[in-house]
Specification:
Elements (H helix, E strand, L loop, with lengths): L17 H15 L4 E5 L5 H16 L2 E6 L2 H15 L6 E3 L13 H34 L3 H26 L4 H8 L3 H7 L6 H11 L3 H8 L5 E5 L1 H4 L1 H11 L6 E5 L5 H9 L1 E4 H12 L6 H22 L4 H4 L5 E3 L9 H9 L5 H24 L11 H14 L5 E10 L4 E10 L3 H10 L2 E6 L5 H8 L7 E5 L8 E6 L12 H16 L5 E5 L2 H11 L6 E4 L6 H9 L4 E6 L17 E5 L8 H13 L7 H19 L10 E6 L7 H4 L11 H6 E4 L1 H14 L11
Length: about 725
């Protein structure tokens, strides 16, 4: 490879590491060839700058825009800091993009905002036309000497009167004061301020609010041709939003290079964006909406919507076993409706309940009517006839039913009926869902459209699996992996040989006692904070209760919905703290525990997801899609590899710099080398990358405290006398 150092102008620090320079050159070459890059780099690799520097250099020379995106909030902050460092060395125009709802000054929905914007723009255009005509009228008044000039002035006066009437009508309608100021005030100072640095959405909101401007609309109108955009996955993975987003950038997809951070999350994020849902309430609201509509198309619309609602209710009524309805709570509870011999139970019930002349003809009329109703609601809001924009329920209901009939039997689509309890009236209601098992339905068209992409994470391997799942061509992509870059002698990774914590065994008292003993030793023989991950919040609670009264430490129990920042701040300020959390929580990714923040990280068990019907559907879809690639591609692609990635993410929370040190404990025999021989298919050790397997040390629980004592003694970590084993 010929070395090209021109990208170093976008590298804001003195000298890149050797591996970082190598990565930048590889990425630069790949982008020039239009190749996608799969880039795994352990903590300390400097992945963000290794991707950004060559991407910005290529974009600068090829007239393209770089978009860097993540679904982890904490990572966005890092991108902003890196971009600020770059801009102080090499001028770039960079913006940080966030959704409209987070930046709106008057707190209205998307449809209402669109209506306000249209009316406001129409008002400003009418006022501009009136001012231009008034100026023309004044000029004619000064020069009018013949009948033609007088007639022309009279015609202008008539137009002015008509415009005055239009303006009066528009002023009575719903408009946005902030957007009005965007169109009429001097906005150049905003853009000068915006591009002096890298501004956060909160900073933009505050600046615009003080100036009486709409920062979101200004941002949209000012991003065309920028060098770098920082945004959420949402802007790239959602096809509708992506089309608008690229239009705001003034770029075709082939003019965009996307850098995906935490790219191991793309699979789940794409699946989430592709999934469609329709609740029983929307169906009922659609029927209520049709009652007041005097239109011949309302009857066919009612036919299909009522039949689908009846089918949904009968399907979940039949699907709930005796006593099961009473157990339904606040969360959606899935019911299996698929079968091997025919269409799903909801579709069959729908076909049985429908009594119209033709389903597809009725659906076409329902969608047509819903579209017109939606437009009329928008117009009423714009005209000031309603204080809020009425929501149309007929259109989404009919559109979903149409998609259901077309897609529910397609490869990789899993039809689901779920129920939950309405706490207001203690009733159970249902939801139909088209769940996308194969994320490449969303991602493959995206990657085909883009000029190139860089997918980076500390846990991407195996690359061939990731590429297949997302619809990339493994043979056409550039792949590179860099292991830990810090001194190996400053870290220890132990696979602790406790019995496997299978879900069916977690309530066994003897097993709990052995795991508790390991945790006690890990806490007592760590000179500082200990971070403990469990397969669920319930398990974290269990071991918190077993430990809290017996160990001289401050315990922090994480729970769903707890603020990550507040929890981390209290824990890291302690010095003798133990934080217990779930591997499926928010502390496993994008949160660093540097230096004394945490010395030892413990992963208890193998964090397999709940193996319900939905996960079984994903496994089955993967098995069919990737048959012949591995012995059991369904299990491996859908369950085991994502699970091990979750574990690898957790252990990567500690040892974050060359000066840092720490221990990582994997507490479950399935992580040990001997498990491959003794547990066979239950072993997960072979799913780890080779260099991580090589440095993992199998250890018996009773020897762990001695190993930790010796390691931390070698690190001179004990502030006083070390504990006695």
């Amino acid at each position: 490879m010929v070395s090209n150092s021109s990208h170093l102008r976008f590298f804001p620090y003195e000298t890149p590491y050797d591996h970082q320079q190598e990565a930048m050159e590889t990425i630069d070459e790949a982008l020039s060839d239009g190749q996608d890059v799969l880039f795994e780099g352990a903590c300390g690799t400097g992945k963000t700058l290794a991707a950004l520097a060559p991407a910005l250099e290529y974009a600068r020379t090829a007239n393209k825009t770089v978009v860097i995106t993540t679904n982890v909030h904490q990572q966005t902050r890092q991108f902003i800091e890196e971009a600020r460092a770059i801009i102080r060395q090499e001028p770039i125009r960079a913006v940080v993009f966030r959704g409209k709802l987070d930046m709106c000054h008057i707190d209205v929905g998307y449809e209402e905002c669109q209506a306000l914007r249209d009316t406001t723009r129409e008002l400003v255009e009418s006022e501009t036309d009136r001012d231009e005509l008034a100026e023309a009228e004044r000029e004619l008044l000064d020069t009018a000497t013949d009948s033609d000039a007088i007639a022309g002035r009279n015609a202008i006066m008539d137009e002015l009167d008509a415009l005055d009437d239009t303006i009066d009508e528009l002023r009575e309608q719903s408009t946005c004061e902030y957007y009005y100021n965007n169109l009429t005030a001097e906005t150049e100072p905003f853009y000068e301020w915006l591009f002096e640095d890298v501004r956060t959405p909160d900073e933009i909101y505050e600046y615009a609010h003080e100036a009486g401007l709409c920062g979101y609309e200004l941002l949209k109108e000012g991003v065309e041709g920028v060098d770098l955009v920082v945004c959420n996955y949402h802007h790239v993975l959602d096809p509708v939003i992506r089309e608008q987003f690229f239009r705001w950038l003034g770029r075709d997809p082939d003019d965009v290079v996307v850098v995906f951070d935490e790219a191991h999350n793309i699979e789940d994020a794409a699946r989430e964006h592709a999934t469609q849902t329709l609740t029983e309430q929307t169906l009922q609201s659609g029927l209520s909406e049709l009652e007041g509509v005097d239109d011949p198309r309302s009857t066919p619309a009612e036919n299909v919507i009522e039949a689908f609602q009846d089918a949904l209710v009968s399907t979940y009524d039949d699907g709930l076993a005796f006593g099961e309805r009473e157990a339904v709570g606040d969360d959606w509870y899935d019911l299996s409706i698929t079968n091997d011999a025919r269409r799903d139970e909801l579709t069959l019930a729908f076909l049985d309940a429908y009594t119209g002349a033709g389903i597809h003809e009725d659906l076409d009329q329902a969608i047509e009517l819903g579209t017109e109703l939606d437009r009329s609601y928008e117009q009423s809001y714009k005209n000031g006839e309603t204080k809020t924009r009425k929501e149309c329920h007929v259109l989404p209901a009919a559109t979903f039913i149409d998609d259901w009939l077309q897609d529910s039997d397609e490869e990789g689509m899993y039809p689901v009926v779920s129920v939950r309890r309405d706490q207001a009236n203690e009733t159970v209601y249902g939801r139909a869902e088209l769940y996308t098992c194969l994320p490449r339905r969303i991602t493959q068209p995206l990657f085909e459209e883009l000029h190139a992409s860089v997918l980076m994470s500390a846990t991407l391997r195996p690359f061939d699996v990731l590429a297949s799942v997302l619809g990339l061509d493994p043979e056409e992509s550039m792949q590179m992996a860099y292991g830990p870059q810090f001194p190996e002698e400053r870290r220890r990774t132990y696979a602790v040989n406790t019995p496997a914590l299978f879900a069916r065994r977690r309530d066994e008292q003897e097993l709990q006692a052995r795991v508790t003993g390991v945790l006690e030793d890990a806490i007592r023989f760590t000179p500082g904070n200990v971070l403990c991950f469990f397969p669920s919040y319930r398990e974290a609670q269990r071991y918190h209760d077993r430990l809290v009264d017996d160990i001289d430490a401050t315990f922090y129990l994480d729970s769903a919905g707890t603020s990550v920042e507040r929890q981390k701040e209290a824990f890291t300020a302690d010095g003798n703290g133990v934080l217990l959390t779930s591997l499926w929580g928010t502390l496993t990714e994008g949160v660093s525990f540097d230096g004394t923040d945490a010395r030892t990280v413990v992963v208890v068990g193998v964090p397999y997801p709940r193996l319900d019907d939905r996960m079984n559907a994903v496994e089955s879809a993967y098995a069919d899609a990737f048959d012949g690639t591995r012995n059991d591609p369904g299990w491996e692609y859908a369950v085991e590899i994502p699970t091990v990635r979750k574990t690898r993410q957790a252990v990567g929370r500690v040892v974050r710099s060359p000066e840092d040190f720490g221990a990582r404990l994997l507490v479950d025999e399935r992580y040990t080398t001997k498990a491959k021989r003794e547990l066979q298919q239950y072993s997960v050790v072979e799913t780890f990358p080779p260099e991580e397997r090589a440095e993992t040390i199998d250890i018996e629980p009773k020897k762990l405290k001695f190993a930790l004592l010796n390691f931390y003694t070698d690190m001179n970590a004990w502030a006083g006398q070390p504990p006695t084993p």
